[in-house]
Write a structure and sequence with these properties.
Radius of gyration: 27 Å
Structural class: alpha+beta
Number of helices: 13
Distance between the termini: 60 Å
EC number: 3.6.5.n1
Helix content: 25-40%
Largest sheet: 8 strands, antiparallel
GO molecular function, one term: GTPase activity
Bound molecules: guanosine-5'-triphosphate
Enzyme class: hydrolase
Strand content: 25-35%
Strand order of the largest sheet: 11-10-16-7-8-15-12-13
Catalytic activity: GTP + H2O = GDP + phosphate + H(+)
Keywords: Cell membrane, Elongation factor, GTP-binding, Hydrolase, Membrane, Nucleotide-binding, Protein biosynthesis
Length: about 600
């Protein structure tokens, strides 16, 4: 029988509603870290995360709390990533818990991510404790938010805890509520081992480490563990808990949260959602809910300097060590040379990886516009997965093309319903549902092509609603669609890295706008450069970058040599992010231009 004094819980919240701040307060209050040791935002440990103010990699921490009933409880707080790209990871860390604090900002109220997370928590049968945060703000409206929680989620919020993670109000009440409301774990210590992996991390000394919740049985050093999805076996070298620093313990048993190290070389062998069992006494079946993480968004990454190719590969491998959901394979582009096609969970994941490559690995990269995976049926009846528009088969060999679609939920003040509907119409959305969350806020549900979301949906949503809308989406399958590929010719030469796939109804417009945009981006050279966009053999738009006036330098020859040097240096710096394609120099912006043309 698992210990009655364990409580496993998560905090679920919309981005910026105060999840990390509250976690810090709980850690501080229970004394896991002294105030001085307490660096700001302990759970968001990566620099990038801190900078962007969002939680990407989930982690766990064990808190020891002496409750008012005089007993000491072991509280395991499991952190969840706060972004739509990582929904599956969120669902697995919630599966490791019995309860969740639902943190809602007292000014903002319920947002799309709040709802999405609540649904995940309900699917996992968690006890939900509503916490209304930021009540210290003058504009806080706790009663309104309380009403929203009741109306939208159907949760009794009459006893919602009013808190301020910033000031520290409500922290003790939250801890007490966790102890009294969240059920203790159920599992049996003596049953065959079942441990749920909710995260994993690569450590240079210990190998790939699994972060687990033991559901049944026990695991200790020396256990031969078996991954139930692959059947692979490893000998356990260490088990431990997070204090939040990793601390080795004798064993982990039913109900507990901790880590398992087994000199595993690759994080691919510690997949989130997988079940670890004991090879000598295996569980009959794995825990439910495992699925392989699948990349949804792809782009090409090319080194600006050809010589950096090997370094780029090594860096991708290093990042992959810690992030099994990042996939990549070598790709050759006629225009850009040797690089990699990389797959990501979503747009944010993509941006993070790109930024880390440039910042931590000091690489200078050309990135092509992101694409989704199209399912193309050719005339032989084969279905091809196309993750690079340049690889789309010629039109006469295509039978059908299907594109991924998502079910998107948008929460917005009622005043903006019109603009949102208009936007979704433009983005080829299908209306599914609409209801009132409160008197003044509306939830809209649409089916939208994922490619339209990748295109510029977030930016449009933000600008058309003054930032008041929030969005959540999940993959809803594939739909056949009338899609065409647009190619771009520069100086008569096809630049494969600029090709993109678009709905026929928009092809003319986007082809036209792209060449206009490129005309502004591609610097003048000594000769005239025609830019054309074409579908098949048909030119749909053309612009020209006029030849450079020869006197750019001549102008500076007034004796002022330093000015001339400055100009040359400026040109050199500008060149860093350029790629020579044929005899035309193309700056990085050009490859992203397709995303910024509406
Ligand atoms: P993600 O990590 O992106 O999920 O965000 P989060 O929900 O963890 O939010 P975070 O804790 O980073 O807080 C967001 C902002 O709100 C920060 O600037 C906090 O200082 C502020 N904040 C958090 N709690 C409170 C509060 O109780 N009162 C006030 N006034 N500000 C708060």
């Amino acid at each position: 029988q698992a210990s009655q004094r364990i409580r496993n819980f998560s905090i679920i919240a919309h981005i910026d509603h105060g999840k990390s701040t509250l976690a810090d307060r709980l850690i501080e209050y229970t004394g896991a870290l002294s105030k001085r040791e307490m660096e700001e935002q302990v759970l968001d440990s990566m620099d990038l995360e801190r900078e962007r103010g969002i939680t990407i990699k989930l982690q766990a921490v064990r808190l020891s709390y002496q409750a008012k009933d005089g007993e000491v409880y072991e509280l395991n707080l499991i952190d969840t990533p706060g972004h739509v790209d990582f929904t599956y990871e969120v669902s697995r860390s919630l599966a490791a818990c019995e309860g969740a604090l639902l943190v809602v900002d007292a000014v903002q109220g319920i947002e799309a991510q709040t709802l999405a997370n609540v649904y995940l928590a309900l699917e996992n049968n968690l006890e939900i404790i509503p916490v209304i945060n930021k009540i210290d703000l003058p504009s806080a409206e706790p009663e309104r938010v309380q009403q929203e929680i009741e109306d939208v989620i159907g949760l009794d919020a009459s006893d919602a805890i009013l808190a301020s993670a910033k000031v520290g109000t409500g922290v003790e009440e939250i801890l007490e509520r966790i102890v009294t409301m969240v059920p203790p774990p159920q599992g049996d210590d003596d049953a065959p081992l079942k441990a749920l992996i909710f995260d994993s991390k690569f450590d240079a000394y210990k190998g790939a480490i699994s972060y687990v919740r033991v559901v049944e049985g026990r695991v200790a050093k020396g256990t031969t563990m078996k991954m139930m999805s692959t059947g692979k076996e490893f000998e356990v070298t260490e088990v431990g808990v997070f204090t939040p620093a990793m601390k080795i313990v004798e064993e982990l048993k039913a109900g507990q949260v901790g880590f398992i190290a087994a000199s595993i070389k690759n994080v691919k062998d510690t997949q989130v959602g997988d079940t670890i069992t004991d090879a000598e006494r295996p569980a009959a079946e794995p825990l439910p809910g495992y699925r392989k993480s699948t990349p949804m968004v792809f782009c090409g990454l090319y080194p600006v300097e050809t010589n950096d190719y090997n370094r780029l590969r090594d860096s991708l491998e290093k990042l992959h060590l810690n992030d099994a959901s990042l996939v990549f394979e070598p790709e050759t582009s006629a225009a850009l040379g040797f690089g990699f096609r990389c797959g990501f969970l979503g747009l944010l994941h993509m941006e993070i990886i790109q930024e880390r490559l440039e910042r931590e690995y000091d690489l200078n990269l050309i990135t092509t516009a992101p694409s989704v995976i199209y399912k193309v049926k050719n005339i032989l009846g084969e279905v091809l997965d196309i993750d690079n528009p340049a690889n789309l088969p010629p039109v006469d060999q295509i039978e059908t093309i299907a594109e991924p679609v998502v079910k998107a939920t948008i929460l917005v003040p009622a005043d903006f319903v019109g603009p949102i509907m208009e936007l979704n119409q433009e983005k080829r959305g299908t209306y599914l549902a609409m209801d009132y969350v409160s008197k003044s806020r509306v939830r809209l549900v649409y089916e939208l092509p994922l490619s339209e979301i990748v295109f510029d949906y977030f930016d449009e949503l933000k600008s058309r609603t003054k930032g008041y809308a929030s969005l959540d989406y999940e993959l809803a399958g594939y739909k056949e669609s009338d899609l065409v590929k647009i190619d771009v010719l520069l100086n008569g030469e096809l630049v494969d890295a600029l090709s993109f796939i678009v709905h026929r109804s928009k092809s003319y417009n986007r082809g036209r706008k792209l060449v206009e945009k490129l005309q502004g981006i591609i610097p003048r050279q000594m000769f005239e450069i025609p830019i054309q966009s074409v579908i098949g053999n048909r030119v749909i738009a053309r612009e020209t970058v006029r030849a450079m006036r020869k006197d750019v330098l001549a102008k500076c020859y007034g004796g002022d040599i330093s000015r001339k040097r400055k100009l040359l240096e400026k040109q050199k710096a500008g060149k860093k992010r350029m790629k020579q394609v044929g005899n035309v120099e193309i700056p990085q912006d050009a490859f992203m231009a397709v995303l910024k043309i509406e």
